[in-house]
Amino acid sequence: xxxxxxxxxxxxxxxxxxxxxxxxxxxxxxxxxxxxxxxxxxxxxxxxxxxxxxxxxxxxxxxxxxxxxxxxxxxxxxxxxxxxxxxxxxxxxxxxxxxxxxxxxxxxxxxxxxxxxxxxxxxxxxxxxxxxxxxxxxxxxxxxxxxxxxxxxxxxxxxxxxxxxxxxxxxxxxxxxxxxxxxxxxxxxxxxxxxxxxxxxxxxxxxxxxxxxxxxxxxxxxxxxxxxxxxxxxxxxxxxxxxxxxxxxxxxxxxxxxxxxxxxxxxxxxxxxxxxxxxxxxxxxxxxxxxxxxxxxxxxxxxxxxxxxxxxxxxxxxxxxxxxxxxxxxxxxxxxxxxxxxxxxxxxxxxxxxxxxxxxxxxxxxxxxxxxxxxxxxxxxxxxxxxxxxxxxxxxxxxxxxxxxxxxxxxxxxxxxxxxxxxxxxx
Amino acid sequence: xxxxxxxxxxxxxxxxxxxxxxxxxxxxxxxxxxxxxxxxxxxxxxxxxxxxxxxxxxxxxxxxxxxxxxxxxxxxxxxxxxxxxxxxxxxxxxxxxxxxxxxxxxxxxxxxxxxxxxxxxxxxxxxxxxxxxxxxxxxxxxxxxxxxxxxxxxxxxxxxxxxx
Lengths: 427, 164
Hints:
A: alpha/beta; Rossmann fold; 42% helix; B: 2 domains; elongated
């Protein structure tokens, strides 16, 4: 049996994979219907236990165990919400887009099951605004088809279970991918993350208990329950069970989204992506989206792609968005682009991040313009250190980590550029 | 009947309102502003924002706050057709800077500006547009165009120019 595209992308090559007919032909909605018909055996607690056993971890980047997150929801009669984070925008990451485009019903079914498990009768799927015509129409049609088929709504198949699902469209703000920023945005406000605690499980959307999960996480649920937690877990390793969709971009011959077993070797992933572009040598990899720390070739080549292996080398699996960088790339220019992004996207509510991201960008800008000073490198480290850990949300850390790691591994390129009036070493 | 918002915009706003609980109409601001901006060919005016606030029955400041926070809303006049060239890392590694320079040169404007005839707006796109495996890419009037090269970009621009 192939190890690739087995769970969320299993139907991705079928024509019309996004239609209800095709999804049902592939066995879709069987789990949801089965739960509705057998609520005694398949209770909400049963669902949560199965998900816990599968070892599924949040695929939005943080890797928090999904079943555990669901179990934090209070068991009372309060209105509760399940919210899907489809605000995909971590640089390098584009696999949720393909789920929305090619397998939207897996997300609809996953959200309905999640809602049942946590006692939420309403779900919102927050899709990034730029997907307005790109994949939003597919998920909007999927929800409509599910309603028309009686799979959503009130007293579904006379089960006594209600579940309403609505898609929401954002309007361009990276910070809305932070779960409490997303909730603020869903409430129609600026997407400024909330101070925690209280966590969304206690105070979420409209102040009600809410669970926010990523698109890939929720779209995995139907298959996990259909084939059992062990089936899913066995794809991966003991500590990183299951599969992950890797978005492989940058200097490879076959960039793409590949759903692969966790724990796969780095080299195998690169081979699947067709090897390094133009036959060049690998220089570095940003392994999990721009917020994760860059790793030089000689470090990552010995890694396996899972949570633990990348943590051991002081980086992270993040969203599984591997940005592959070949020899000849100027790391100063690349870091400057990353820092420009965080400067532009800081929501501005915490001073260290609002001011610090601007400092980082301006210092890097002057270095690349030939106006860097020798003291600038220490200044970059100092500013990054003052942002890290001093902000309401993880965005501040995410702006600091690239600076710290680029300087750690490529200090000589920065020094060279400062000494040579902005001339890149790699050129 | 609202005099500023067209019936199509009102219909769209009502669609968004239907998704939220009673009294939570603030949640419909973002969707309403998308509709109002679409009606006005790509940018918002104070008149439109005020009309949205009135229709939703929310304070005007709540609408202004949203319009000024999110990068998809333009609060100054811009060209009718919007081009966003992604220049974030994955696209940068695949040559997006050359694509952007080429487009700037062809249109005779810098990123962030509109052509003098008001036809094309070249948006400053700093956020990643989540099409990294198809880099370099751009978005033209919300449509994603991937695996760009100069020839492909020129075709798109020729097509937009012919609409002016």
